[in-house]
Amino acid sequence: MPHLESDVLVVGAGGAGMYAAIAAARAGASVVLLDKSLVGRGGATVMAQMTVAAALGHQEPDDWTLHLADTLKAGRGLCNEELAELLCRGGPERILEMDAWGTRWAREGGHIKQETAPGHSRKRCCYVDFLATGPAVAGTLRRKVGETSGIRRISNVAVVQIAVKGGRALGAVGLSVRDGRLATFHAGAVVLAAGGLTRLYARNSASANMGGEACALALEAGAELVDMEFVQFFPIGHLAPRLVGMDPIMWDPFRYKLGGRLLNGRLEEFVDRYGGTDFGRYTATRDLASYAILKEVEAGRGSPHGGAYLDFRHIGEARLREAFGPVIDRLLANGIDLTKTPVEVGPIAHYHMGGIRVDGKMETRIEGLYAAGEAVGGANGANRLSGNAITEALVFGERAGRSAAARARSGAPPWEASLAEPSIERLDALKKGKGSPGAAWPAMVQSELQRLMWENAGPFRTGGKLAAALERIREMRDELPDLRVGAAGAYNLDIQDWFELRAMLLSAECVVQSALARRESRGAHQREDFAETRPELERNQVLELRDGRLCSRWITPMGRVEADRG
Amino acid sequence: MAERNDRRAVLLIRRGTAAEAARYERFEVPYEDGMSVLDALRWIRIHRDGTLAVRYSCINANACKTCMALVNGEVEYTCTAKLTPGPITVEPLPKRPWIRDLVADTVPDDEKLDEEEEPRKRNGAR
């Protein structure tokens, strides 16, 4: 079995993971950087469309305290204020560092250009190009990782277990997809930067990486999760007509630049009926817009595919071409002419506010286990502002990498072969092929789980539906050993899918159990049976595994995680 | 999304590894206007055969650039290649070592986990 040693192991090579690797290496640590996909090409960062929020004050006077105030307001009282402060305070430094590394932030009159975005009180969001900011940010970091000595990059390894001994993380076990074998990684500290969990939902804007593996790995390692019920549904994800080769959340920049009218199935404006102001100006926050669209659908006033119309016909071809020329052509190639027909949009799972509970150094309660990026819970509370996700990836990534390097300096307990046994046993059992010829296979069950989560734990929730989902998820976990997987060794996606599914089911259970326990509506969590926001529930739910059982407790939102300990 | 079960696309997919005789497998997939080849491959993995090896990451955004294959003999991103009623032939990239099914070895050499990687200290101080 291949075995690698390093000071710091980084799991996930999107924006947060790559930044963590760079920061750890420049603090003097040797780093192994793993990704299930290809380094720098998987994850969510590469898919980011446009905005990165940071109080640079280049476009107009701004300050990180104003960014923080906006972030806390959007978070509906649930933000971990220490993490939110780190995000807002640290954003400008990271943006400028990326600038020095060659990210071509859009400029205007000699300064970085910043646009307005919903929920931000200042022009704060920088970008490279609409629809291309993510690839540019990922490209810069990929290049920088390649140039930084001390970073060993490894693609196509899916981490399936964090190795912990005596409450101390000291590495991981990974599945090498290329040859179907396990590999072990011994390190002085581990950074989990493997993304969020939006692929749990049938309608999503996720990449293949985001099945909630980071949360499941952390939970099983003994760390806590927080705010798992808060999944952000992006209100205007593309539904129809079928559009290929473009991200389903692509309509956001169109609305930033051009407005675009959101209309129900009867071609009426409707967001104002739900307390928002829209009228083509796009000022409604994401949770409100999602709510408004689905309420119209429920009332029988939706578009044919269960969403709303987004209409640019009043804009005119000249302005459309001026703003989005090449994209207009790509849309025409998809048979979509914005001057003639509106498109259909609706909520899709886009981001997870909850995640792994960490302190201000990004460390979990398991010594030596850190988290970064979307995998971290708490900074954005019950609802995330547009533009905060990439900032969070960069800021938390840098911080986690630096902290992990410092932790690794004190050395790690020695590796023991027995640490990998749980994964070895699982893989051996799978290969023995207990699954009968007629049994379901992992990709099929993943798809069932996605539909279940969409229908029962999506933007609108009820106690009954959530309870039914919980029951089915537990059955599916019991059925895991009976699934059928192929025998091939090389690039056996069945086996990767099985480990993914195992993690997805655990993360899904966390989302559903937390959603069931939160008997109110707040931010992205909307309960039809508890429509009011209850002030006494201005609290966070924390989950942990105790003897294999998921246990939860409520805590007061806090700036300092330590205050809650003991 | 509404599924139109009356329309089908046909794909002929190269299966197996370099060590085996050439083998093409035929799949029928429900077809609707605007679908991509990757949509069809993902449908097959969910509904027909989970063992089909395919490489992709971002699914639909054409951002990760990892889903290339030969579609009707042309190198294309399967996420942007339009599905047609077919039959469409899908094969792995020809100029890379073939791993299995539609997966060719596109991982840069310095990002590979060496099969024989021995326990060793890396360049750290520990």
Describe this structure in words.
The complex is a heterodimer of chains A (566) and B (126). With 566 residues, chain A is of the alpha+beta class. Chain A has helices spanning 15-26, 64-74, 81-100, 133-147, 213-221, 251-258, 286-298, 317-333, 388-409, 421-431, 442-456, 463-479, 493-517; strands spanning 3-11, 31-35, 52-53, 107-108, 111-112, 125-126, 151-155, 157-165, 168-176, 181-192, 225-226, 231-240, 261-263, 308-311, 343-352, 355-356, 369-371, 540-546, 549-555. Chain A has 13 helices and 19 strands. In chain A, strands 1, 2, 7, 8, 9, 10 and 17 form a 7-stranded mixed beta sheet that branches. In chain A, strands 16-11-18-19 form a 4-stranded antiparallel beta sheet, covered by helices on one side. A 4-stranded antiparallel beta sheet of chain A has the order 12-15-14-13, covered by helices on one side. In chain A, strand 1 (3-11), helix 1 (15-26) and strand 2 (31-35) form a beta-alpha-beta unit. In chain A, helix 1 runs parallel beside helix 9 (388-409) and helix 3 (81-100) crosses helix 9 (388-409). Mean pLDDT of chain A is 92; it is low at 560-566. With 126 residues, chain B is mostly beta strands. Classes of the chains: A alpha+beta (566), B mainly beta (126). The interface between A and B is large, with 70 and 58 residues.
How is the topology of this model organized?
The complex is a heterodimer of chains A (566) and B (126).
Chain A lengths: L2 E9 L3 H12 L4 E5 L16 E2 L10 H11 L6 H20 L6 E2 L2 E2 L12 E2 L6 H15 L3 E5 L1 E9 L2 E9 L4 E12 L20 H9 L3 E2 L4 E10 L10 H8 L2 E3 L22 H13 L9 E4 L5 H17 L9 E10 L2 E2 L12 E3 L16 H22 L11 H11 L10 H15 L6 H17 L13 H25 L22 E7 L2 E7 L11
Helix pairs in contact in A: 1-4, 1-9, 2-3, 3-9, 5-13, 11-12, 11-13, 12-13
Chain B lengths: L7 E8 L7 E8 L6 H11 L20 E4 L2 E4 L10 E4 L6 E3 L2 E2 L22
Parallel strand pairs in B: 1-5
Antiparallel strand pairs in B: 1-2, 3-4, 3-5, 6-7
